[in-house]
Amino acid sequence: MRKYVDLIRHTFYFDGEDFAVQNGELYFHGVQLAPIVEQYGTPLRFTYLPKISQNIQKAKSLFASAMQKVGYEGKYNYCYCTKSSHFSFVVEEAIKNQIGLETSSAFDLEIIMALHRKGLIDKNQTILHNGYKDPTYTAAIRQILHSGFQNSIPILDHTSEIEAYEGAPLTQIGLRLATDEEPHMQFYTSRLGIPLKELLAFYEQRLKNQSTIKLKLLHFFVNAGIKDTVHFWSELNKIVYTYCELRKICPDLSILDIGGGFPIKDSLGFQYDYEYMTDSIVKNIKQVCDEHNVPVPDIYTEFGSFTVGESGGIIFSVLEKKQQNDKELWYMLDGSLITHLPDVWGMNQKFIMLAVNNWENDYHHVHLGGRTCDSMDYYTSEKHIAKIMLPKSDSKQYIGFFNTGAYQESLGGYGGIQHCLIPAARHVIIDRDSQGEIHHHLFRDQQNSAEMLKILGYAQ
Ligand SMILES: Cc1ncc(COP(=O)(O)O)c(C=O)c1O
Known about the structure:
By secondary structure, this protein is α/β, with parallel strands linked by helices. It has two domains: about 5-50 and about 310-455, Beta Barrel (Lyase, Ornithine Decarboxylase, Chain A, domain 1); about 70-305, Alanine racemase (TIM Barrel, Alpha-Beta Barrel). The protein is about 30% helix and about 25% strand. It contains 14 helices and 21 strands. The chain has helices spanning about 5-10, 35-40, 50-70, 90-95, 105-115, 135-145, 195-205, 230-250, 275-290, 305-310, 335-340, 340-345, 410, 450-455; strands at about 20, 25-30, 30, 45-50, 75-80, 100-105, 125-130, 150-155, 170-175, 215-220, 255, 300-305, 310-325, 330-335, 350-355, 365-370, 380, 390, 400, 425-430, 440-445. The strands form three sheets. Strands 4, 13, 14, 15, 16, 17, 18, 19, 20 and 21 form a ten-stranded mixed sheet that branches. An eight-stranded parallel β-barrel has the order 5-6-7-8-9-10-11-12, surrounded by five helices. Strand 5, helix 4 (about 90-95) and strand 6 form a beta-alpha-beta unit. Helix 3 (about 50-70) crosses helix 9 (about 275-290). It binds pyridoxal-5'-phosphate. Pyridoxal-5'-phosphate binds near residues 260 and 406.
């Protein structure tokens, strides 16, 4: 018999710190998933909280070691980009690790105020206000500045944004440099940020002689992520050179914010040399600064996916097996790829997909179908191979998608109206106590029809 467990073990280095199999069942970070699924039902979204702190600490130690290797005199500051997952349990876990926060919209600032009311952050908290800002967002930033958050730094997306802060107790700002996109994109320069040719002139004309507002930070974000590509290194060099040019005329400039984009494991075959990339970033920045004879900046990152992505997963049940022709067997899921994992549908994103049980069974080639009526609601290939193998089974079969903790709820909507009125999944939080014991509880039950009917105007 060709067992599913053998297929996975022969294809990948399996049984690492994130996945293991025992008695035919899958463990995620040491958590046996099937009993949790039996207890709460499916579709079941879950967050394994300890992974959030683990990844933050991993990045901190990577940057600390990279800085130590080259005698880097600046500091490293980890910021969490809240838009990757705004959930309170995510942000509250992240801020246990002495980090800054990055906001993207007016409502984000309500989250900051809520954290402050709960006593979880104080008014020295580093908060970076990023993104293109509408009047409600700049008004919320003014409010937070007035309320005394002294390390709140608006990062100007365009030069006239500065006018929105007139009259506010603004002491420090950042500028976002517009990056150039990868060649396959339909445009050359990102719509976000200030074009390079305007940036130095803006400093000279508007900021240089300002006595109260200091230019503290220079930021860029490479949409394609922090990858070992010519594109990333040339964009990084561009910003470091710009930092050096600015630093020569602006002694207050002390932070280089290199944005988000640290990747996460999206396949069991995922390979990425975090240490090499971090070492190279830090070494590069130091080298260019030394050549220009300017002090190195403190390095800030705004990792979103890396903070929360690997903490999450979603588990579906197979409702039915439909043999549609000689070759095509569909496992019909009790959820939807379009609504529950919108990146699958919108970006052809692959996640780690594994059976949760029946690992000792024989396997076969299947297609996974979501339960909306949209023909695009399917998952039929993996990152490493253009097909999907799953166990044959006569009993209940659970299928898990892993490392799905970033962006899926914010893109798919949470508790709203979705395709074919598929409800938002129940969400379970899994944690460990100081003794390492596993605990879990229901954060929110599956969305019910009454909520949807209310949104749709059928009920008060
Ligand atoms: C300005 C900015 N910073 C940080 C991030 C987070 O990126 P990631 O989730 O890839 O780390 C984003 C994502 O879009 C962003 O736009």
